[in-house]
Amino acid sequence: MAVFGLVSAVAGFVKVRYLIDKAIIDNMVFRAHYRVTSAILFACCIIVTANNLIGDPINCVSDGGVQPHVLNTYCWITYTFTLPRNSAKPVGTHVAHPGLGGDYGEKRFHSYYQWVPFMLFFQGVLFYVPHWMWKQWEEGKVRMISEGMRGAMVETKQERQAKTDRLVQYIIETLHLHNSYAAGYFFCEALNFVNVVGNIFFVDTFLGGAFLTYGTDVVKFSNLNQEQRSDPMVEVFPRVTKCTFHKFGASGSIQKFDALCVLALNILNEKIYIFLWFWFIILAAITGLALLYSMAVVLLPSTRETILRKRFKFGTPTIVSGLIRKTQVGDFLLLHLLGQNMNIMAFNEMLEELCRRLQFGSSSGASPTSVPSAPSTLEMSPMYPEIEKYAKDTEI
After folding, report:
1. Transmembrane region positions (predicted)?
2. Contact 94, 301 (CB under 8 A)
3. Which residue ranges make up each domain of the chain?
């Protein structure tokens, strides 16, 4: 029960948060990295360290001469090995277990099992780092400027209009000043992609070059005839291995003890890593697509126009096109994040007011430069409190 209590604590990474309480500062793909993937890896770390699920992680037997707990400890902290040439031989007639047999020929050593919990924890931290970096870069900007306007609004029209006016004033005052903000976001998005691809090769190195094709090998194995099968999960994560222990005899000669070790922990490891293989591949694919989408947003104004037109229900194509021409990538990202935090009516009212201030489609023909200057941001301080106020209340 203690294990499930720890796992349930990790579930806090993926719990649903109410939109009115938390500001959304990224997209679903971004959240799949630091919430879902980190939670999966931390949960797996807890599972593989829970001895009460499988008993002792290793149990070794020998012909005697070495106490069992000494042999178990030695083989756990050093390594065990299998013989690849015996992996495909029939069990029961040629070999006792896959990969076992006479102690000669090529040996495949296995010592990774000591490091699996540390690896899983370290990977969980790696998947959280880009989000942490983006939070430091973002500094609670979206939370501050959308305060009181997130979620379902039940205020009067006058109160809503006052908040909309102040938000529009802030956007106009800071127009074209958010490009570094956008650069930080897109950098962290790219870092997510580098991170997931790097983790695939990192695990492959950790498992001795067996992870890149691990998933495809398992799929092929399931489609083979029973007589032709050689389980790739058993080859990568053997359940029974060999271990050699040396000690001095009574007369001072070196004695060799050949031990057979049962690695019960590998029954969990093989399932964890086959799941991680498929998850990393899927995550890398959708992250790559999200990165291409972000590149299109940065490089193609038409993409930004299409996205904004879908959200700006009351705006004509001419007005939306004019708004895209007057804004830069950083301004668009800020508007896009505001659109994720505000309900559709409040967001459209804000965009209408912004376009009116910038005089898109105005019959007077006045230029945007004739718009009265917005109040100083110092006057807006009652509406936009200090960032430190939310330092302990930001989402994970």
Report:
1. 32-54, 112-134, 193-214, 272-300
2. no
3. 1-361
